[in-house]
Design brief:
single chain; 548 residues; alpha/beta; Rossmann fold; Hect, E3 ligase catalytic domain fold; 5-stranded mixed beta sheet; 4-stranded mixed beta sheet; 17 helices; 16 strands; 14% strand
Amino acid sequence: MTIASVLVISYIRFSTPRQALGDSLRRQFDATRAWCDRHGYTLNESLSFRDLGVSAFSGANVSAGGALAAIIKLAESGKFPPGSILVLEALDRLTRQALPIAIPLLLRILELGLEVVTLHDEKHWTQARIANPTDFVMAVLLLGQGHGESERKSGRVRDSFAAQRDAGISQGFGSAPGWLKRTDKRSPWEPIPELVDSVVKAFEMCAVGFGSPAIAKKANAEGWPLPVRKTKQTGETWHSRLPGRLLRDTAVLGHHEHRIRNYEEQAKHWTGKSTGDVIEDYYPRILSEELWYRAQAAIETRTKPRRRDDHFYNIWSGLICCGRCGATLQRKVEHRGYSRGQLLCSNSMSGATDCPPASVRLTDPTLLREITLYSASMLGIQEEAGKEISTRLEAAQFKLKTVEAASERVAAVIVDVGESLPALTRQAVDLGKQRTELLSSIELLKSEIASFEPDLFDDAYAMSVLAVLFDKTEEAKAIRADCNQRLHRAVKKIWLWPYDMALVEYREIPGFHGIGLPHRKPGKTEHPYFDAWTAGKLFPPLVIQSSS
């Protein structure tokens, strides 16, 4: 093989995107071309592999998507002739991982028939050369030196951030939620009004029953600005999962949690690893607690999966099923004709049963009025349940203060002793677990309290919903969505026998509530199921059981 026929390819890598703004890329490429000119080789510029802003310390360049990983894959498939040369600045451009990983990587590349040239020392690494003990030791030393340098840098950065976290200093941390900005690291974070408005509107829609895709659809239709950092954007539009992420982000309340975001932890989850260290009042609060917990209650009570029509015409979505066979009832919307749509048994739609449909016009008004009136009359039970949850919340908050005070005492003793004794360590760990559990319980209790709204239903509520039951306006859609959410907070399940009766199971009211429904033919009074229910009899073919 002549020098002119040897395939020469370049591999360029640097660790941070910021280096792309400097001279690293041009320097490495010019040095590769100069080496080829000096030694009579021709650089194949169409096969220039680049890992720009990719860490070799984490191994990201040899994982899926890395340019070095692509080189190895091509070599394994025989795309490079034996003796092809891979030119790079130094061995640490290949890897800065620990020696047990780095050495096999270099040996694998050479075994695949590639030769490696390092420009900074003009070493030409081949299988024959690496077999020489002196050269092998030199390669080990070079790889170890690269790993050690990265390890020291990483350690200094970790220690610096840990010290700033422990001191509660925020200046060293340059990232924040997308709706905040600051002029420099010493300036406080400030809300961006138009982006804050987007976040608040997302929470308001969630609180009345809209899910993440519906919120994203409305945001795109109305052109809401994206409240995220540009580095995290996937274009200029809201994607269907973005509202869901915002709705779970406690940064809207001003909270911040320091997370470990190295390559290993972000490979497990894109948000990194939780440290459990949550700091309140770290960022400016942009949302009231009341709206936060209303939204969380709406999320928790939303049934999954739940299929809705685009305009929320089916206010019973996720709640209602056929009393005859137990299958879900689906809403067929009709904007003309007397019935204005039907509630259809999904088994009947597939031909599995002959369960009859129910007219929306005859079913919805009676059912909604009776449920709202019954719920309002039983409000005392709900209020008592709310008081009981409030008592539990106060107890949990008091216990949390006690645990946190104990944790501070243990930490003070450890500092005074100058070392972490086993007994103190165990006590600190146990207190930390108790704190985490209490924080979780408090969040759940606050969400439960948010579901006990005094005005969940009142005497006029049913009429306000029924007045817009078939309207196509955005306002009517929001009212129906809110109604569906309120029903989910009050009702567990509804069984329906068309033109006869409905049986309702509530969340906080024991037993069942039977509701007689109007017959579809004027003058007829036959209600066999409702008559059996009022007489205290069980009726075939379905024996109703609690959905709890």
